[in-house]
Amino acid sequence: MGPLGGRVAFITGGEGSIGMATARRLVADDAKVVLVGIEEEGLRAGVAELGADAACHVVADVADAAQVAAAVRVAVARHGGLDIVFSNAGISGVIAPVAEYPDDVFDRVLAVHVRRRGGPGGAIPRRGRQFVHHRQHGGGRRRHEHLTRRPARSP
Ligand SMILES: NC(=O)c1ccc[n+]([C@@H]2O[C@H](COP(=O)([O-])OP(=O)(O)OC[C@H]3O[C@@H](n4cnc5c(N)ncnc54)[C@H](O)[C@@H]3O)[C@@H](O)[C@H]2O)c1
pTM for the whole thing? Predict the structure, then answer.
């Protein structure tokens, strides 16, 4: 068994370039991956490539806290917990002078990367709380990591 054997990774933007590259690497080390994103065709293609034993997908918009919570529930129900979270989903918006930047695009970029729409708090802190909640209630097994800040260590 590889060094991540038995670990479960939740990867947002899992159908994208970095998401799939990460999933391939984790699966090569025997982790299970849950690909989460908004492009179902890409998610399905990712699972087909990685193999249904190693990967599954959930369609969810990370700017929508309820969808993220539902995706976490699906992942926990399938695997019994989460060990690794890669909060990777993102959009570039548009390149434009600040004074001309479209408000709707700016709001969407913030909603996807920083906060949920229509309320205080934010997508990332809210997701963090959901993961902590699952862990405190026995849903998570070991720890969760933000891989863009702190790479997962070998056990
Ligand atoms: N590639 C780069 O050079 C680069 C540089 C800096 C930052 N980043 C960031 O790294 C991350 C991954 O980049 P990438 O190059 O793989 O991009 P990508 O476009 O290939 O992948 C991003 C994925 O996120 C998904 N996504 C977008 N909005 C979403 C939402 N609301 N909910 C769920 N999924 C959503 C998309 O469907 C896509 O599959 C992004 O957050 C990006 O902003 C990338």
Answer: 0.84
